[in-house]
Amino acid sequence: MLKKNVLLIFVLVAALGLSGCFSFLKPTTPPVASKLDISAADNRNAIALSADDKTMELTALVKDKNNKEFMVEEEEITWEVSDTDKASLDSQTGFTVVLTAKAEGEVTVTAAYEDLDCTYKIAIFAEEPQITAFSEDFEEFEAGTPAETEGYTFVGNTEIVTDQVEQGDKALKLVAIEGDGEKSDPAEFLPTFSETLSNHCVSFLIYKPSNAGTFNVYLQGTEVDSGFQLTNGNGFRYRNTEGKVSSDTEIGSIPLDEWVRIEFEFDDELGKYSFYQGTGETRSTIGTDLDYLPGENGITGLRFRHQGEKDTAIYVDDIVVTVLTFKDYIF
Question: How far is CA 313 from CA 158, 207, 218, in A?
């Protein structure tokens, strides 16, 4: 009996050993180059000739079908630029090259490895364009009643506060107070732009408590009221070509009792705007390509209006208006 057990163990060990020995005979698929990517530091895609540094470093990376790096020799990657009068490369081969801008315009850089290639577009400007058309974070104001400021109009119960902020140290507080009629007396902030705008993005932070009533943001300079309304709940309604809001124009909602960033883009030539929550990678769409009735001379400013429930406060901060024409350029 003992001999049979020993023989059985020997057979099992031999079988396991042989299976391990012959595992190398199983066919394996070698990795294959499937993709070539070009990247620039900080995702840059624009250069200003007026800058001290007119260069941009570009890196090429070959990947396999699993998006993992595929090892190649440095000299196997080749580079070229579409217009050598506008830009030049310091090398025609290698993992990394440096492009130097020479003249205004747009160039396309191409990297290639065997039958793979990839392109990267770079815009060259004489000077870095002014992307920010307006900004206000209220940090320069003293706490309390806002001081008279050129281009700004404060209406009703408005205050610069330090106790309810999302970023920085200060924010604007708007309080609706009891009026003579059925409605509360409004609290408003109306900034006027230094020049009329036509194709821009408005971005700001807002803290709207539950049951604070409605809150409105308007574009100044349109034929009829344009912009949007936050309802007494959390509804988001845009103003149509008649300047009206209703359940028919409700296109989404926003969170209450927390700071939220709202952005809206407008094209005053087309009379179109689009609305978003969040910014950058966290940005989500509320509604796009919605019609409003533009004026004759462009957008002259903004109007933030709280005329909701009396003795309720809504907070606004970090208002930034940027030029959409250049929003995709990173210098």
Answer: 9, 9, 19
DSSP per position, 222-235? SSS-EEEEE-SSSE
Containing domain of residue 301, as a range? Answer: 132-326
Same-domain check for residues 198 and 309: yes
Segment 12-61, tens digit of pLDDT: 444 445 445 444 555 677 889 999 999 999 999 999 999 999 999 999 99
pLDDT (mean) for 287-307: 97
Give the whole-angstrom CA distance, residue 46 versus residue 42. Answer: 11
The answer to whether residue 263 is domain-embedded is yes
Q: Which residues of 57-79 are buried (b: 16+ CB within 10 A; e: fewer)?
A: ebebbbbeeeeeebebeeeebbb
> Would the CA dihedral through 224, 226, 231, 236 be positive or negative?
positive
pTM above 0.85, yes or no: no
Beta 299-306 vs 187-197: how paired, if at all? antiparallel
Of 192, 163, 208, the closest CA to residue 306 belongs to 208
Same domain for 74 and 148:
no
**184/148: higher pLDDT:** 148
CA distance 130 to 182: 45
Number of H helices, E strands in the chain: 1, 23
pLDDT for 183 equals 75
Burial profile 7-37: b = 16 or more Cβ within 10 angstroms, e = fewer:
eeeeeeeeeeeeeeeeeeeeeeeeeebeebe
Q: Which residue is it, tokens 């974070």?
A: 137
Q: 35: part of which helix (H) or strand (E)?
A: strand 33-40
40, two tokens: 């620039």
Contact assessment for residue 264 and residue 281, using Cβ atoms and an 8 Å cutoff:
no
168-178, pLDDT tens digit by residue?
999 999 999 87
